[in-house]
Structure formats: structure tokens, C-alpha cells
Amino acid sequence: MHAELVVMPPLQIHNVCLPPEQTTFRKLKHSLAEIFFPDDPLYRFKNQTWFRKFILALQFFFPVFQWGSEYNISLLRLGFIIDFLSKATLVGFMAGAAVIVSLQQLKGLLRIVHFTSKMGIVPVISSILNAIYVQWSWQTIVMGSGFLLFLLTTRHISIRKPKLFWVSAAAPLTSVVLSTLLVFLLKSKTQEIPIIGRLPKGLNPPSLNMLCFSGPHLAVAIKTGIITGILSLTEGIAVGRTFAALKNYQ
User: Fold this and answer.
1) Most buried in the list 74, 98, 229, 245, measured by CB within 10 Å?
2) Residue 38: its pLDDT value, please?
3) Does pTM surpass 0.90?
4) What is the DSSP string of 76-143?
5) Do 89 and 127 fall into the same domain?
6) Helix, strand, coil share of the chain (percent; to 5)
7) Per the domain annotation, does 209 fall within a domain?
8) Domain boundary, last residue among 43, 68, 93
9) Which segments constitute the SLC26A/SulP transporter domain (predicted)?
């Protein structure tokens, strides 16, 4: 048997073309660009408006503007602290803070004029007991206790019937309006209840000319303001996360 071999043409797998010749200067320029600028530094500026180009250029020369837009306050959320605290610990902290705040509110409820400036429980209770026969006013106590009971009742109604959420929301403003009307109508019989009095009409005069940006204590005032603001923000976020942790919110 004879086998006929078919002669097939050679297959062209790859067709490689030689690159165009470059001068030494162009080769050096290309090498330096690959080393120092592997990506096109002006890529972000292409097809952008002039305002966007200005913002990108400002962020390129002053990186703080780019950091400011991407900065977050995750460090101030105190999540890592709350994750390690139990519910009993959170309730204890909240109860202690609530007791201190409640005792401080007794100054207005009992109409105590000379009240201690300390935050401890013992000084506050001592100040309250020392003013029983001197500064307490039964009119103020009755009105304050009545509206406090009204607020607690509306809150209980909103909890029992969620559809009536507006009852608890409108209760504070309603209390202010009703208390004002009661004091106005019973003016002759409520002299022991302190009132603000007549308010002058118009806006307050501008106080811009009273600002002083000089002096030896300016730096201390700025530092104090910044630190106080950060602490207040941290405290507010921590309290919010505490309530969220108690309600199993995310």
C-alpha cells in the first residue's frame, strides 16, 4: 500500500512585527516614566469640568482636603468599649447618671434658690433637706408633679398603643402651653411660682464688636473649646450607642 502524503502549507501561528526604532532619548524617557509614573498622574483630570479639575488639583497639592472628605469619627463611637460591657454594667451606669440628673432637677421642682453646685449624691440631698422649711414652695411642687405625671402617662399610652405615638410627642409642648395659661389665669394665687416676666421686643443687638481675638488666654480658650466639643460629641455618641445596645439595635 502506498500512502500519499499531502503537503500542507505551513501554518502561521504568530505574526510578530518589530517595533519601530526609537532614539536613545525616547527610550530613556519611557524608562523613567515607567519607574516614577507607572500610572498616568493626569488620568483623573481627563474629561472633567474645570471646577472638578480645580478640586482635584487642590487635593493633589494639599492632601488634607482629601483626608477631610474621607475622614470618619469611628474612633469616637466607643463601640469597642460597649462590646466588652455587659447589659448589667450599662444599666448600672445609666441608672447612676439618671439619679444624679434627677437630683439636680429637684432644684426647679422644689423651687430651691440656693442650691449646691456639687454633683455628688450626699451634697445634693443635704442641700435639699436643709431647704425644706425655708425655700420649698408647695405651689411649684404641685404644678411640677402634675405635669411630670402627665408626661409619664402620655409616654405609657404611646408604649401601650404605638398608633398613638403623637400623644407622647406632643406632650412636652402641651405642658408648656398649659402651664403658661395656668400661671397667667391664676396670677394672684400663684405668686410663689417663679416666672420669667416680660420679655423685651425685637432681636438682641449684635455682639460681633464684643468678640476679642487677642490676649494671653486666646490659645487656652481655643484648646478648651476644641476639647470640650470632642468630649461632648463622644459622650453623646456613647449614650446613643448605650441605648441602642440595650434595645439590640444595630
Assistant:
1) 245
2) 56
3) no
4) GS-HHHHTTS-HHHHHHHHHHHHHHHHHHHHHHHTT-SS-----SHHHHHHHHHHTTTTT--HHHHHH
5) yes
6) 60, 0, 40
7) no
8) 68
9) 75-250
